[in-house]
Model the fold of this input.
Amino acid sequence: MIGDSYWNGNPINEKDERNLFLASESKVQELRAFEGCRVTKKFEKEWVRDDEQAQIDYLNNFVDALKKRKAKSNTLFLTIASGNRRRREPMLVLARIFGARIFHRFNPESKHTNNDLYEIPPSQIDAMVAQILKGRKLKAYRDCAAAKSAGKDFIRILIESDLGASPFLHYWGRWDSLIKDLDDRKQAFENMITQTVDLLSKNILTKNHFIFKPEFKFRVKDKTSVWNKLLKKEGENGYIGDPFLRFTDFAGVRIVFFNMLDLKKGIDLIKKSGHFVNVDGDGAIKVDNRIRALGYRAFHLDVKLHPDKYASDFPDLLDVPCEIQIKTTFADAWSDIHHKMTYKDVRRTPLTEKQRDNLDSEFRKAAGFLEGVDDVIAKLSDQFDPRK
Done:
């Protein structure tokens, strides 16, 4: 289906109309799944399940439609909703080749879904294809992606290859399973956060250790963030069967210090406290001192409760990981500003990949001032320490 593109009821671009491809069942009632989208045309060809040539013709027609719509618009939007996997997955791959931004709309009948659309990163589709296609077939895909075009020979490859066998794109089932598991574990994550904040604020990072008392923020990772991280990481590293074994930041605590002097002391106190072990069970807590992609510095500790101390009091929390993120006030504000500029829930228009890259580049350039500011604040905090 081809139509004018709307996001949360608002035009994607008020000055310049863009186009939206919706690949869905042909039934009109299916359109109710796409809240906020006004459909003006439909890509409606018959898909014949057991006729290979008819399927090739179908995909050829789809490619022709992509070419025509792309000639009229700088941006293609494709929403994959439902349908036969042997049809859906080849259409998704072809849309990726032609440079479409691809979104997924979940099953509206599921109690775990909402009316949102989730963008699928191209890297995840690349990883899915690499899992199925090998040798010359994979090379053919990469050549087509580089050229942003696909011919009949590659379409035949798609039909011959069972892309529907990949677990990557079974989105409805994977989403329902993930969110159900997240709901089931939410209480444990919340309890782990409560215990971690209590230990940090009342036992480890008490006010007398610092020039200024740190601030604490915390959250259980929301379902949208979990899903988007899963897609991103699969694009980088391949299929992830159980994200709860892979990711350690479902429960997160952020400690914000006013200066680097207090921050460094805080990290040392946590490591030596004896209340936590590293997430892998090692008694020596590892500190991930990373310069974030946006240029600001953040320190990460992935921990669990120490089993020798808490096996009897909190047996259900011993295997629940928690990410402790430590920043200065300026680094924390920097990341919040970037988040508000890019997060799709506060934007009328989702940023294109090029726009996101440009924004990130400008943030990295400006972030060079942060380290200098933090150094000055540390020096002033020491010089005018209110405890002296």
Notes: The first strand starts at residue 2 and ends at 4. The chain has a mean pLDDT of 78. The CA atoms of residues 61 and 93 lie 15 Å apart. DSSP finds twelve helices and 14 strands in the chain.
